[in-house]
Amino acid sequence: MSKPVYNRIALVGLGLIASSMFWAIKRAGLAGEVTGYARSDATRSKAREIGLCDRVCDSAAEACEGADLVVLCVPVGAMGPVMAEIAPVLKPGATVSDVGSVKGHVIDAVQPHIPEGVHFVPAHPLAGTEHSGPESGFAELYDNRWCLLVPVEGTDPDAVAALRALWEGMGANVEEMDADHHDLVLSVTSHTPHLIAYTMVGVADDLRRVTDSEVIKYSAAGFRDFTRIAASDPTMWRDVFLTNKDATLEILGRFTEELFALQRAIRTGDGDMLHDYFTRTRAIRRGIIEAGQDTDAPDFGRAHGK
Ligand code: NAP
After folding, report:
1. Which of 37, 155, 233, 264 could tie 63 with a disulfide, CB 3.0–4.6 Å?
2. Which domain holds residue 242?
3. What is the Å distance from ligand 1's center to 237 Cα?
4. Are residue 171 and residue 190 in the same domain, yes or no?
5. Pocket lined around ligand 1, Cβ cut-off 6 Å
């Protein structure tokens, strides 16, 4: 067990990310007490039933009052309103952080509500699954994954150091980055790939009448890996695209150009171009495995019955 980093942590929003934080905080003893709040009765009841949080509160204000760290774990579009609601109860010297997938927008929406004497250290754990809700979390989610801290200029270094210690205690590797760079990098590694997966699954759905149930039956040929990503939470992803608009459009523009180049190579029978392209992309997969960010077992290590 580690020494607690914070006396009291409040988690606002009790979905995949917050529930995984709670179990990881408990695993390592990183807080004296963890309070939690979610807007719906159903989520709060479920949290109480499964022992998620030491104390589940019936208002965000009650959960955040007296907290040393408040982590906003709601969809990106809800961060500003939630922050405005809790601002009056925050104690001087407390830190507010978040886990939002987009940083520029969250900083613009949250920063104006941060009271004098309260620190704000935005963060983004690069870990998740396609599941959501209070029951979807698990203590190991952040093990050996990255968490990016995006402190605004002039942030108290001690507040940043404490949040770093919390994320490291939860198993993550921590790095700092500025918001614009974060939003561009994540557009390439996460946001645009999700959009492409949503599109591919949408196209298959449009063709359903033609292919009947064959899309499902033969999905293991590659399609099902798109469907996992395209099963991600609709509210979360709507907010990501609405709030990381510029970077997404930039990367989508480049994607479209490459797609046209491949389309042309297919039309003109340019096998060398296709082969060179696929050789280059194969190396990216090797790099991810060497960086310890995925398994090198075939088919992502799925069990295949004999
Ligand atoms: P989730 O499982 O869907 O949980 C979202 C939580 O936010 C729920 O407790 C929900 O309350 C609450 N909520 C939803 N809309 C709200 C609103 N308008 N006002 C107040 N509360 C609201 O989501 P999650 O996956 O944990 O994502 C939370 C944050 O983490 C998002 O900002 C997301 O961008 C970020 N993130 C997600 C992933 C991922 O892969 N999932 C990875 C990294 C970062 P109810 O349950 O009561 O409806």
Report:
1. 37
2. 181-269
3. 10
4. no
5. 13-18, 38-40, 43, 73-76, 78, 82, 99-101, 124-125, 128, 132-133, 233, 235-236
Asked whether residue 281 is domain-assigned, the answer is no
From 14, 20, 74, mutation site for ligand 1 pocket: most ligand atoms within 8 A of C-beta: 74
Output helix, strand, coil percentages for the chain, rounded to the nearest 5. 55, 15, 30
CA of 40 to the centre of ligand 1 (A): 12
Domain tally, the chain: 2
Q: How confident is the model at residue 221 (pLDDT cuts 50, 70, 90)?
A: confident
Return the best residue to mutate from 11, 12, 16, 187 for the ligand 1 pocket (most ligand atoms within 8 A of CB). Answer: 16
pLDDT level of residue 206 (50, 70, 90 thresholds): confident
Residue 288 domain-assigned? no
Say how many residues make up the chain.
Answer: 306
Which is more confident, 212 or 58?
58
Distance 226 CA to ligand 1 centre (A): 22
Strand ranges inside 52-160, DSSP E? 55-56, 69-72, 95-98, 119-125, 146-149
What spacing in Å lies between the alpha carbon of 15 and ligand 1's midpoint? 5
* pTM of this structure: 0.94
Q: In terms of DSSP bridges, do strands 119-125 and 95-98 run parallel, antiparallel, or are they unpaired? A: parallel
Verify that 161 and 104 share a domain, yes or no. Answer: yes
Query: Tens digit of pLDDT for each residue in 4-61?
Result: 999 999 999 999 999 999 999 999 999 999 999 999 999 999 999 999 999 999 999 9
Assess whether 207 and 172 both reside in one domain.
no
d(CA 173, CA 148): 8
Looking at the structure, do residues 108 and 202 belong to the same domain, yes or no?
Answer: no
147 vs 174: CA distance, rounded Å: 5
Percentage of the residues of the chain whose pLDDT score is greater than 90: 83
